[in-house]
Specification:
By secondary structure, the chain is of the alpha+beta class. It has one domain. It has two helices and three strands. It has a three-stranded antiparallel sheet with strand order 1-3-2. Strand 2 and strand 3 form a beta hairpin. Helix 1 packs across helix 2. The radius of gyration is 14 Å and the shape is globular.
Length: 71
């Protein structure tokens, strides 16, 4: 029997034209709600959001996070 390795994904994304600190603020609000835990970081000098999906293949996971994050 072949062993299966867990599949994890890390997705980094940003809102175009966001003010400095906006990504960190949105990540904090969403994490504070208990719905999802995001972090903010910098890639090539730009502030971005980072989401680690435990099971990105599961239907219906990313959509609700996106809706809450950008509302």
């Amino acid at each position: 029997m072949a062993s299966r390795r867990p599949y994890h994904g890390i997705v980094c994304f940003a809102l175009r034209g966001a003010a400095e600190g906006e990504h960190a603020r949105r990540a904090q609000v969403l994490a504070g709600s208990g719905f999802a835990c995001l972090s903010s970081t910098r890639l090539k000098g730009c502030e971005v959001l980072r989401l680690r999906t435990i099971n990105p293949l599961r239907n219906g996971v990313i959509g609700p996070i996106n809706r809450r994050l950008w509302s």
